[in-house]
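Bumping with the actual sequence this time:
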Amino acid sequence: MPKTWSFPPAVVVTALTAFLGGGLAGAIFSWFVNRPEPTVMTYLVYQTELADPKASVLIPDLSVRVGKEIIQELRAYTIEIDIPRGARSGAAEVGIFFPHKVRIYGKSTEAPSQLYSMNCDQLDNGLRCQMSPVSRANNKGYRIVLATDEKESPRVEVVAKDVEVLSAPEFAARKSGMWEAFSSSKALGTAGFVLLVVLLFIIQLRLLRRVRRDGPGIVVGKIINPEGNPVKDADVEVVLESPSHNFPPVTTDRFGDFLLGGLRKFSLYKGRIRVSHSDYTSIETPIDSPIVCLKLERNAKEEK
């Protein structure tokens, strides 16, 4: 028969808590804190009027020229690109597209550092730019400025790997929300770790309360003689090693039955039982179950 192993509840609780609280909780905490934070790119478009037809009505001699050409309307569109959060990425393509074909009179780009680059090629309806790397430097981002006679603001499109693109107002609205307070790796990791510790503490407390409430549980049994008849008034002593407990001695009733402990069966048992009676040979034997049935042999003098 294979050997049966049993462990005290205190050992089970301690081992479970050590495994979950030490290994699993630590691994989860490390993962939350050290996981890569998603990179977020934001953009903001605003315009500045450089020439307005209404101004020539108020000031008759006012005109804006590009070479020999008189420009009636002229606007400067500034596109600011920032990377407020996340790891540094390789590169990105940025498109500045107007709703239809436009004339661009001039353009300029600005990178946050001499180690960063922003190059733009002119298209029929806007600009196509390459920026590298996707990161900020000196607490600054990228900037694109272009001059055109188009009234409608351009749209911005970005192609970049593992980068979330948001307009500046969208990012500001998200950042002001409650979830943003927990969205960073450290904040979310700390919150998850605290919740896990609280959960483990509650589980441990419930297990310990059960062990204390139930105590060693119940030990019941029957003592019989060689003919199978019940032995009355036999003294029964039970000493448990797991869980550790000493029961007060009891005697069997007229049916040969005895009962020790509470009203709940507890399965993690390991101990010894001793049964004695004046007419029978005393026995002492290990037990691993709360239900015991033993047979007493008559004393040699009684058999004569």
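The tokens above came from a reply further down the thread. The chain has a mean pLDDT of 78.
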